[in-house]
Design a protein that fits this description.
- The protein has helices at residues 3-6, 61-71, 82-89, 105-115, 119-129, 140-152, 160-165, 183-196, 204-208.
- The protein folds into 2 domains: 3-129, no CATH class; 140-216, no CATH class.
- By secondary structure, it is mostly helical.
- Helix content is 38%, strand content 0%.
């Protein structure tokens, strides 16, 4: 933990676009001291330990992916790496800065700001800030299907969101489920399909499909 450094960091929970203030999300805290367990950072210097996150993130994939890579780590990890984040982010509607809901990048940035406030906030809001939204930023099944179809084509079900929602679920956006019949396994392999980037993601699109090979069964 970097207590001495992070104790100096202040969170100005706001957006650069229009200088608008971030609105509260239900009972979510609007401002809180930085938790020493989060090495949060400013999107301007992703490689520096002095990197500080002040809430001023533009609705931009490069800025978002730099920030989420510092805020959502370990058990809160949402993307395999920065390039995977950028590839998936490119398929998401930008939305309006300050949005607190909806399947948009702006919504993910709002929840990323909340995640950055403390370790406990990260556990709650990193999934919201990640690719699958987990209800505040679109439903998990709908976001998965939109990303699947954008990279891989047909999921193999007439109604992808309904079929995806019916699959077993294990966790909330933590990339640890790599086998077994669950939506989580399919989400992991869909990220790998984006990481590889070719038409079938080196087979990962097949793993992530409604009726996959043995990997997600």
């Amino acid at each position: 933990m970097r207590t001495s450094r992070l104790a100096l960091v202040l969170f100005h929970v706001g957006l650069a676009a229009g200088g608008a203030s971030w609105l509260g999300c239900g009972t979510d805290p609007v401002a809180a001291p930085v938790d020493a367990g989060k090495d949060v950072s400013a999107v301007t210097d992703a490689g520096s330990d002095a990197f500080t996150f002040d809430g001023n993130i533009p609705v931009d994939c490069t800025a978002y992916c730099a920030a989420i890579g510092h805020v959502c780590t370990g058990l809160e990890l949402q993307y395999l790496d920065t390039d995977t984040c950028k590839a998936m982010c490119a398929k998401v509607t930008a939305g309006t800065a300050g949005a607190t809901s909806g399947n948009t990048l702006a919504c993910r940035i709002y929840h990323l700001g909340l995640a950055a406030q403390s370790a406990s906030n990260a556990a709650t809001h990193c999934p919201h800030a990640g690719p699958y939204g987990f209800d505040p930023c679109g439903t998990e099944a709908e976001d998965f299907c939109a990303l699947y179809q954008a990279q891989c084509g047909s999921f193999g079900a007439a109604d992808c969101p309904t079929a995806a929602a019916a699959l077993p679920k294990v966790d909330a956006g933590v990339l640890t489920t790599t086998t077994g019949n669950s939506l989580d396994c399919r989400e992991y392999h869909l990220e790998n399909a984006y990481k590889v980037g070719d038409t079938n993601g080196a087979g990962h699109c097949s793993h992530a499909a409604n009726t996959p090979g043995s990997t997600c069964l």
